[in-house]
Fold this protein.
Amino acid sequence: MAEEHGKARVVILTESYRVKGEIELVAGARVTDYMIDAKSFIAVTNAEVWDLEGRKILTAPFLNVSRAHVLVLAPD
């Protein structure tokens, strides 16, 4: 039986950027659960990348964010 998945809107803060987008969660999972199980990269869809001054740098349908650079990941 296949697991059901859902999307969660998140904000990811790094030292230099703010990334807004969606991550795919297993049904019933929390964002915290996602981070515990995350590998080296976090897959973000419908991504927007902003600098710390509030300027939009880019948008992309898919973006990998290095887990090592994540300072904060929070629901949006």
Observations:
- Strands lie at 5-13, 17-26, 41-51, 56-66, 72-75.
- The longest helix spans residues 31-37.
